[in-house]
Structures are given as C-alpha cells and as structure tokens.
Amino acid sequence: MKSGYQKYLTVLLFIVSGLGYIIGCTHDNEPVPAPASSNPVITRGTNIHLPGAMTAGNPNEWKLDKAHSSVLWETNYVGAAGLLTGRFNQFGAHNVLDAEMLNYNTTGQPLKDTGWAFYENEPAKTYFSGYVQINTSNTGEPGRDAGCNLTNLGTTAIVAGVQNLTVTNIARIKTTSVEFDPASADYIVKFNMTWKGTLTAPVTRALTGRLKYIPKATIAAAVPYDVFGLQFKFQFNCRDFGITSTNISDKVDITCNMNFNNK
Description:
CATH topology: Lipocalin
Radius of gyration: 28 Å
CATH superfamily: Lipid/polyisoprenoid-binding, YceI-like
Strand content: 35-45%
Distance between the termini: 85 Å
C-alpha cells in the first residue's frame, strides 16, 4: 500500500509541475501592454458661462460660490523638509480698478464677482480677473498670521467688519491670453500679477498658469440648480515683490479653486 501511495504522489506532482510550466509559458507569451498614446484624445464641450449682473434666481447668470471656493498657497520652509501652507480667507473675482482700491465697511463681498467669462471651446473669449486680501493669509497659527506675517508681507492688521482692498493689502491677477493645452483638456493662461509687497509701489509681473475646467453638473436639490468649477494653478517668485524673509523659498505655488452656481 505504501508503494502504491508513493507512486500516486509522484504522478500527481508530475502533473502539477507540468501545469505550472504550461501556465508559466502562457503568461510569458502574453503581449506587453501598449504604451500610452502620445496623441491623447481630448474632448471639449461647448459650455458658455457668464456672470451677467449676478441676479439671484436667474439661471443664465453664474455666481461665484465663495463659501465653497478657496485660494491656497504653499512654499518650502527653508532649512527643513516640510512645506509652509495656508489660504487667503478673503478673495474675489473682480477686476479691481485703482479707484476701487478702498476700505469697505462690509463683511460680505465688497465688489461683485463679475470679472470673468468662460467659453469651453473658444478660449480666446475666456478671461478672468481676481484678487486676494494679503492680511487674511491664514496658516492656522494666529500668532504668526497676526504677527510676523504682516511685517514680512508689507501689510496691516485686519480691522473687524472691514474688507481692505487698499494698495498695501491687495494682490491682483488679470489674464492676457487663454489657449488650449494641446496635451490635455486644460488651458494655458498668460496673465499679469500686480502686488506691492514690501516695495514702495506695486510691481506687475507677467506669469503663466494652468486652468482646469470642471464641467457643468446638476444638483438635485428641492429646486435643482447647476454648478461648475475652475481650478487655476501658478507659481511666482516672491522676491520680485520685495519679500526678504529667509524662512521661505523664492517660489510660491498658488491654487485657486473657484466654484460657481446659477441659483
């Protein structure tokens, strides 16, 4: 009986080994996955989004949903591996003219967010302007935000109930051209950034960024409405604006997440 069992076991092992060889050969002969295409298929719609007069209840006029939007910044902490990060609590999508660079006694948006237009398939018609209030930079550390940051960024402390759009506290951007990105569904944006920083007068620098469109979708609320998003990323050299702090690197990355609705 023992001899018969050993023969059975030997035959079984031989069969299993053979199957392993066949399976192994089969996998070896499978074709290598094709490389990623160097000519991506890019699909764009024909959506057009305009602010109009931002009339509440008008579904043809799009409004910036500031409560669900953000302007984020990050830079390297010099001498350490980590990043310094933060956000600006107050910002808008308005082309702020010199005559509008004032203090506004309001807790809401001081100016209408109408400085933009987006044409999904006609980027030459797309444009946008925007601003941030520098003293609302929020790192999550109140002592730093209300202390050394004010001096290092050349601005003044927040005054409760006041939106400060004065020359010492506002950084502005305004597009000069928007084009298709041939390698993706994004857009390449050229624009001017104007900021005083710690200098004696504002300086304007020509920069380039990337714009991503998050297509229109319908929210199934009690009264349905539509939303869409624009994400804009760029980098600038803070030394161009007189920032000399040795705690941060030259380059600062900005991400603007702008969400809109037609409620």
